[in-house]
Recover the amino acids of this structure.
């Protein structure tokens, strides 16, 4: 399993929709190899957090480099 954390990035022109977020909002992206829970696997979970105070966004990705690492990224996401 690989965990990638990107440094905070300042958003210069904050879109109106983002300005309406609260400090508790989180962006979640789950990538899979298909739609069947029996035949397909989750290989990426991406998390994005917008900081209202300084207009920055931080991104963390949990990436399963091998099929057997699906459980590891799910456990890391739970934490």
């Amino acid at each position: 399993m690989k965990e990638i954390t990107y440094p905070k990035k300042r958003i210069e022109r904050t879109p109106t929709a983002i300005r309406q977020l609260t400090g508790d909002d989180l962006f979640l992206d789950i990538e899979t190899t298909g739609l069947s829970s029996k035949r397909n696997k989750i290989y990426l979970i991406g998390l994005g957090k917008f900081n209202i105070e300084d207009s920055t966004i931080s991104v963390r990705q949990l990436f399963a480099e091998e099929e057997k690492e699906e459980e590891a990224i799910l456990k890391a996401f739970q934490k």
